[in-house]
Write a structure and sequence with these properties.
Blueprint: H1 11-21, H2 69-98, H3 106-133, H4 142-148, H5 161-188, H6 192-216, H7 221-230, H8 235-238
């Protein structure tokens, strides 16, 4: 018996690592206020609505939270990027939920993605509430959300289930890394309310990432059966055919 662990890298997990190595983990704090070049922002202000606050800005007079204007703005903008990223992740999870297929995937994976969708919706609500409580306007336009988000939706079309799960895992790992950066910064700024919100979300995102990573692991029942059936001289191939069968 060979007790040495296999050293070959799972190609799906290797692709995830390569993508993460090229990921630019920086927040777009400079994107604040109206920008006519930004999707969802007006080139001409509407005359039939009363503007009370521009997008991705913070209320100057405060919002009942004893943090300075500068801290509330920085934390609110970082949280808004998480808000946008989770909305992108939700759209991608929903697509994959609709397109699950295969004997080993359709029911179990369909249900697992339902759990991921539900958790993501919860986290969107929790972060969006925190953004508003800090006095910042959450980004709501779907095209603008994708522009601001630090993760991007996969290209349109149907791909293999492993491709879907690998893309979702890349999202989860990027979200986790960015959440840690905000948690660390919130500690520095003594924004402990944001810390508490994000720490709980981070633990649950790690759980979702672990689900996806486990599904992409190289040792599976389906691959194991294929290896057996494809071997030269295997039982299935060597079996004689009943001549009475037409």
């Amino acid at each position: 018996m060979n007790l040495e662990p296999q050293k070959a890298m799972n190609p799906d997990l290797s692709a995830v690592r390569q993508d993460l190595d090229s990921f630019k983990d920086e927040f777009k704090l400079h994107l604040s206020g109206f920008d006519p070049n930004m999707p969802g922002h007006p080139q001409v202000m509407p005359t039939d609505m009363i503007l009370r606050q521009a997008p991705r800005t913070v209320r100057m007079e405060g919002s009942g939270i004893s943090l300075s204007h500068e801290i509330r703005l920085e934390m609110g903008l970082q949280l808004d990027e998480h808000f946008c990223a989770l909305n992108v992740a939700l759209h991608q999870y929903t697509k994959h939920h609709f397109l699950t297929e295969g004997a080993e995937s359709f029911l179990n994976l369909h249900e697992l993605l339902t759990e991921h969708i539900d958790k993501t919706q919860e986290h969107i609500d929790e972060i969006g509430e925190r953004v508003a409580r800090l006095g910042v306007v959450p980004t709501a336009h779907p095209v603008t959300q994708h522009e601001i988000s630090y993760i991007k939706h996969e290209v349109e079309g149907r791909y293999t289930m492993r491709d879907f799960l690998r893309n979702d895992l890349e999202h989860e790992l990027k979200i986790q890394g960015m959440l840690r950066k905000t948690i660390d910064r919130a500690h520095q700024l003594k924004d402990f309310g944001t810390v508490e919100v994000l720490e709980d979300i981070l633990v649950e995102r790690e759980d979702l990432g672990y689900h996806l990573w486990s599904l992409l692991e190289d040792d599976t029942l389906v691959r194991g059966m294929n290896h057996l059936l494809d071997r030269r001289g295997n039982i299935a191939d060597a079996r004689s055919i009943n001549p009475n069968l037409q």
